[in-house]
Amino acid sequence: MFRKLMMIAAILASLDACHHHHRNPLAPPPRPPIVCPGIVTTGPSALTAAPAVIAKALTGVRDRGEQDIMLQMESKLPGFGGWFLTSDTFSVYMKQPYSASPEEVRRVFYDAYSARPEEYVRRLIAMGPLIKIIPGHYSLSELIAIEHLVIQPTRRIPGFTGVGASLLHNRVVVGFTDSASVCPGAAAIASMGVPIDAIELEVWGIVRVN
Questions:
Q1: In three state form, how does the secondary structure of the chain look?
Q2: Among residues 118, 134, 34, 157, which one has the least CA distance to residue 83?
Q3: How confident is the model over 64-85, as pLDDT tens digits?
Q4: pTM for the full model?
């Protein structure tokens, strides 16, 4: 499972903005981001729920798969925003300002993954691992706190279709049924204390679960 996750992460990193349902072998040019000017974040900050997200992961709960391990890593690396794999390099988001050195990050990675049963993982970790630190805006626990709030909102979000924390972009991606719903939906999310800069807005259409 972990190896598949890594392979998927590598593919996603190479395709970047390409969606999984794209059938053309050539990736299309990235779409310009959807911008909703004039939206102001109000209310208590949604980021205050982040420590509780870490605390839950530290109890051993595994409801987010590998992200639960990443949350445990964040408890040792404050500001850690998650990682994704490109070639044989771990690209690691660290919220600024950060004090952790690549050596510290490497040590935490070794502690987290060196005992995994997958031979591929052990071999990769034994290589160093190779670490590239990317300045981030949000920690992983903050992104997940935002995701939780959007999933269980305190008010209606017009046109809301789905949500997920993006480890590639260090943001929370929110999908809407149509373009007319995007900005009203974003305004509703911002009114619940979510920084508008923390979300990426997309139109997914109506998602039907079979």
A1: CHHHHHHHHHHHHHHCCCCCCCCCCCCCCCCCCCCCCCCCCCCCCHHHHHHHHHHHHHCCCCCCCHHHHHHHHHHHCCCEEEEEEECCEEEEEEECCCCCCHHHHHHHHHHHHCCCCCHHHHHHHHCCCEEEEEEECCCHHHHHHHHHHHHCCCCCCCCEEEEEEECCCCEEEEEECCHHHHHHHHHHHHCCCCCHHHEEEEECCCCCCC
A2: 134
A3: 999 999 999 999 999 999 998 8
A4: 0.83
